[in-house]
Amino acid sequence: MSFSTLIQHCLTGISLGGAYALIAIGYTMVYGILRLINFAHGEIFMMAGYFMIFSMASFPWPISVTITIAGTILLGVAIERAAYKPLRSAPRMSIMISAIGVSYLLQNLATYLFSALPQSYPEIPILKKIFQIGAVSASLVTFITPVLTILLVYALVMLINHSKIGMAMRAVSKDFETSALMGIKINNVISMTFVIGSFLAAVGSILYFTDRMSVTPFSGTLPGLKCFVAAVFGGIGSIPGAVVGGFVIGVCETALVALGYSTFSDAFTFVLLIVMLLFRPTGLFGEKNIDKV
Amino acid sequence: MMMKKSMRILLSGFLVLLVAVFLLMVEQDKAQNGMLLSVLEKGVILAVVAVAMNLLNGFTGLFSLGQAGFMAIGAYTTAILLIPVDAVDSVYYMNGINPGIKAFKTLLESAPGAVQMAYPYLALIVGGLMGALFAALIGIPVLRLKSDYLAVATLGFSEIIRAILSSPQMDTITNGSYGLNKIPGFSSILITFIIAGVCIGLMALLIRSTYGRAFKAIREDEIAAEAMGINLFRHKELSFVVSSFFTAIAGGMLAMFMRSIEAKTFSITLTYDILLIVVIGGLGSITGSVIGALLVTASKEWWLRFFDTPLSIGGISIPLFRPGFRMVVFSVLLMVVVLFYRRGLMGDREFSWDGLYGLIKRLIKRQRPSKGGAA
Amino acid sequence: MKRRLAFALAAVMSFSLLAGCSSSGTTSAAGSSAGSQAASEQPAADGGNVVKIGVFEPVTGENGGGGFQEVLGIRYANQLFPTVEIGGTEYTVELVEVDNKSDKTEAVTAAQSLVSSGVSIVLGSYGSGVSIAAGPIFEENSIPAIGVSCTNPQVTAGNDWYFRVCFIDPFQGTVMANFATQEGAKTAAIITQLGDDYSSGLGNYFKKAFAEANGEASIVAEEQFQTNQTDFKAILTNIKSANPDVIFAPSSITTAPLLIQQARELGITSTIMAGDTWENQTIIDNAGENAEGVCISTFFDENDTSNPAAGEFVTGFKEFLNANPDYLNRNGGDGVAAVSALGYDAYLTALEALKAAGSTDTTAIRDAIGSVQVTGVTGNITFGENGDANKDMAYIKTVEDGAFKFLKTVTLN
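Output (structure tokens, whole complex):
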């Protein structure tokens, strides 16, 4: 493998990892607070893709991006209110089935509304500008994704560590009931979690689909599961962990495909999950003393 | 009021007989009743998987989403064993079959008639055993995990199995990405029903045994169960292995029903479909799963198919009806059940003749006063 | 309350099953008598004899676009020839369309529903995988089927009831390999879709033929991707480093634009080639100017003037398309796709077979298909021993100025 090929693969992997990282944060935050795998998160990400397609049909891209982000946040919060909130005191299994149900519903709804055929994703001209450095060639979005990811994560960490809502979030994730007793409005905190998670999913979706150029009702499922694995890998509840996990999975997956094992690229993620759960159930950066495994 | 035991046995025997006669009648005209037959057959196969999933999820409280993977193992094993020797070359037309498998199949072809007769059943059992073997291996690490982690880990395993089955490295065994076809099926739907009945019956017996009670104890409270002297891991592993065994057998039956399989058939969606059946039927009810499987399959494949075709009543076309609507209805149904009728059709109750008798009595009672009131 | 609901549902189900059973008892008697005796003696209540032709095509799913074009061809043919004379009686042809959703599992159920709706002959499908899956169902129920554009040899091999009107992959693969060699290609890379009979099969035949012509070392890269995969960067980067003269990538319509765009984005300049599926305007629409120079092989060319039947068909079909905005939209303009032409031919073949059989008995129809001769728009159709049409000519087209342009015809031997 020549040097330029290697660089090209690295670029692809890092860019993919950036998008994964953004989605993984949504999982890690929801899990940290509700102890729930939001199976529908991948579908929220997919729906964000469709929002972009339809808003780009009639608006210029800056407005479309805003619409997409707003729509995705609304969807995320609506899902929480409709499908998770009524079950807050129900057995764990019911909430998980509900989460799976939402993901099933969104997939089928998207198939119904937009057909199962891939819709081509609109191009944002600036992002698609192709750069050629030596033998390496890639569009701007490939370079922007990791940078934007890091910036957003930095902002998020700041928000969580230095703002009132951030403090509330940390309190709720430590102890649900006590923080309620302390006067924290649990429902607002949970909604905020979904707002942030969906916002990042929308940004991730724009970056991911601009690079891949088509959306199908099923294009959220596998990235969703992989990002959950990324969150577990990094230690669930830990934001830097989710980012690292996202990049690791993105790079490894690209490496596997590059080496000719594309059949196993999806399977690899789950092997990683199982190995991680067996040897270090709290993940890379997870808190040690949480009883979750 | 309880019925006499002999009465209950008589009624059950009568019901079985009724079903058998009904199936034989339906089968008299395969072409006319094609849809009915295939719905019944698929429904009863899915019922086995649903009961097996219920054994794990509903009775032992282990949230596993690996059903599709185990079905794939069973389906592929059974299919590879059953494809006739003279069809092998055309099935593996691209890469050729592993000579070892072919030699083994040729050897079997010359086996005495009795073996030939029992062979399809043996193939199913071997498929089931393969599933159980994998489950035993996978269970050791995975069953240490709790609820959602277990769900994702089993889901992951099912994806790994699928990837392995369809990988080019397995070309000469599973025919890789081309899938398998020309799988001979059973001559009569009755056989499928009998096998499914035996499988479901065995699981019901297991659930009613001391093991079953231990499973339920684990479901209710692991720590308490352990304190009562129940070996957690052993029982979880047993439940997982048994469930996977029957899931794999059902996978084999599905392969025989569909005549051709590919790895894509066993994707996450299949697991979700079975989850839908279990939830609608009621987590923790065997009869619920069976009824759910038949109802869901019949509505999905047959009764509600019209949802997908544009419909116009009196010249006005109803805009909702177009491809994909059926599945939206099903997913909304799932959400409604999960959110509002969490117990599903049967909750955790089982069908019994006493229950039916009581129900009829209550129905009659309730109708009388209402009639009186109207008069 | 809920319990009662449960029992009520169970009761409804069992009753409906019983109802289905009893009704089947009566209809089956009528059905069998109609099948064996001359149907002309008992005209149907709705005022005429009806023969049902099943249309087994994907309208949704991965191959939904191409499948629909094929359906259009069949519908157009049905509009032109709505009746057929069988054994001296005029029959109205009724099309029974089912959607196999490009999915092998769905295909089995869809085939089953065709069987129970009592079709005499089946047309379809687009995509070989679904045809292979449904083949045994048709065979078991003794219903002859005519494949339209399923090119994989396995569709008809070992199945006496399956025929087809298109050429097959070993031929197509060789044609493309020869064409590539003629154009001066010395090295080739192959991209195929895992789990897809059409893609893997055609890729393999191309590989064999190209390696035969240029030596084993001429295949410099072989890559596979998964169904629904949208990111081809990694495999394309590998191909870029191998620097082949041509890339052969038989795949579905939905994959094509992604593959083309990402290849060009990575700076790959090799000629991209594919099989018949890529002849679809939406690929060019989606891939834009990146699609320029893509080469494909196909069954038919709308500007081919050598066949008078074809010209007539093209004019008529364009009118048919333009009359219905929905058709026009889903066809991606009023271009005549090769698969539409094949669909039309398959329908004509079915009618000829019905005429030749002189009855609606399915065995007679099957026996008749083997010997019919049809002057179709894609050339003359006669059937060889496997049930495959004897076709020895393929059309090579290339994308130029945003449209498919006919390049040349290639015949083997």
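Chain A has eleven helices and four strands.
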